[in-house]
Amino acid sequence: MPGHSKDLTRLRIALTTFFALDGFIFAGWVVRIPAIKEQTGASASTLGLALLGVSAGAVVTMMFTGRLCRRYGSHPVTVVCGILLSLSVALPPLTHSTWALGSVLLVFGAAYGGINVAFNSAAVDLVAVLRRPIMPSFHAAFSLGGMIGAGLGGLVAGSLSPTRHLLGLTVIGLLVTAVAGRALLRYDSPVPKSAPEPPSAPVPQSVPGQPEERAPRRPDTRTRRLVVVFGLIALCTAYGEGALADWGTLHLEQDLDAHPGIAAAGYSCFALAMTIGRLCGTTLLERLGRTRTVVAGGTMAAVGMLVGSLAPSVWAALLGFAVTGVGLANIFPIAVERAGALAGPSGVAVASTFGYGGMLLGPPAIGFMADWFSLPIALTSVAALAAVAAVIGYGTRRATAD
Question: What is the value of pTM for the model shown?
Fold first, then answer.
């Protein structure tokens, strides 16, 4: 592992940059979905099918990205996926049919899923080396990147075409990847170098991502079940993040007649609230504990999303989105950390796959429900799953030991 604190700081900054870049590019894409929908002539259900390309590409990639990380290292995989993500975001505006859109979103989803598994794996390794629960700070960077990307998208929505906007994101993404990637590759493979240390320097069980997880014992049946349960919590909450990313802007513009710039601000409000919540995540966990944080967060998100989806005015909906962001902020990081504490890196992989699967499978489900009922009613499913996460979190209070 890097032997000097400055090296660890630089490594943390590089990883944080990739988290932020991921959120920035993803948000830049989602705020242009209404324009892409109009360009392709897609209905809500056919758009949902096209968005399934993101889901399929990401989930399939997640299944083997872990193996690539073990073979080549999580840092090189992160850089390669960063390049692919930056290039693929420019493809959707070039399509003029839902079939073509779904095809390019398959590529975009593959890059998105790959980079999320890779930099989460690298972040878990760094958490273990630093012996500090800093995982929420990485996810805060993702949310901050999303806020900036959505805000920028709202500013340029009326003046730049989706083609020029997303091509600009490609240029920015490649430049950031070149700079941050060089720093990340400089400290490649920190895990093997730190692996021999844990036996002589054990850490308390209460620290997430502890080093002794480098060589985890085979989990028993109860542990595997708990890991799946925490994965379900991650899925329930990440579902809401994906749904708001892909459908929140369209809901404000289509159902509440918001100006495109104001509609784009919907996801920005959500991302800002989530960023603030995650920046306060460590302090919140220290004061309330995991169980109370999950229960309170899930309840808050459920109430906020009911307001956001059913409110008759734009400003009330924006307030609901913000409350939802605060509520969901720390539930996903908690679920991933608990799964890792129970089963090591394999537990992190399971929970992350569940979570990002929920984030990516939620939008197509919203699309079908929007056709069957209406988009506001479909968005209430976010509130329902947030409430389910709160209930499950309370049910696992003994497993969290706080």
Answer: 0.75
